Amino acid sequence: MKLSKNIKCESCLYKCEIFSSLCRRAPKAVDIDTIHVTYKRHEQICRQGNDVTHAIFLLSGSAKLYIEGINNHNIILYIMRPGDYIGLLSFFESPHYFYSIMALEESSICMIDLELVKELYREDHELLVSLNAAFGRSVANIMNKLISLNQKQIRGRIAESLLYLSKIHGSHQFQLGLTRRELGELSGISEENAVRLLSELKKERIIDVENREITILDPRILQKICEVG
Q1: Which of 127, 150, 173 is the last residue of a domain?
Q2: Number of domains composing the chain
Q3: Which of 150, 169, 188 is the last residue of a domain?
Q4: String of DSSP letters for 115-182
């Protein structure tokens, strides 16, 4: 983990909605101090049960948002990408994180004082709408995951996960940034079942797997498997 303090918003390449809100509020006084942190792959960004002290913005890389289960049986709810707010679900109601977030690759975040964000949220209608939309997307991701875990069999879950990862990468061919165990956690199945199902889908020529690279050969069939569960 690499920590950089007192980073000025105006010097940051990524101007988030909070910066835009500060500009609308006081155009000549937007140089608030933030903290930038860079994490290596599989370093913890925040842990379930810890206090929420900052609004966190993902600048680069990717991270998994997951629930820590009993006996280390975790469930990955969704993958976070640059531009996402980390901890948005805990900004205003819960003083603690009810989930954990871990970097999937080298990732950088920006930490902004939570009280400032709350103040801007109450005063700036545009920021309110923007954060509410991001909150809605987070809730929708979690609801879709709950429906999948409750209604789909394991073959449908792995198909859904592969289509989800394909959508994130914007291609039917992508590098799997997850371990086989993490792919199982994203699908709500064991690592053994994840490995077995990947092998089955490869034999059926629905996908191809070469080391960590996955190619969806027949997206129509994979979508059908996802839908019928």
Answers
A1: 150
A2: 2
A3: 150
A4: HHHHHHHHH-HHHHHHHHHHHHHHHHHHHHHHHHHHH--HHHHHHHHHHHHHHHHTSSEEE--S-HHH
Range of the domain at 220: 153-228
3-state secondary structure string across 19-37: HHHHHHHCCCCCCCEEEEE
114 with 168, same domain? no
61-120 per-position pLDDT tens digit = 999 999 998 888 899 999 999 988 887 777 767 788 889 999 999 999 988 888 888 887
Q: What is the CATH number of the domain that holds 197?
A: 1.10.10.10
Q: Which two tokens stand for residue 72?
A: 């280390």
Let me know whether 77 and 99 are in one domain. yes
Contact predicate 102/182, CB 8 Å: no
How much is the pTM? Answer: 0.86
Strands 100-103 and 63-67, by their bridges, are antiparallel
Closest CA to 17 of 153, 121, 95: 121
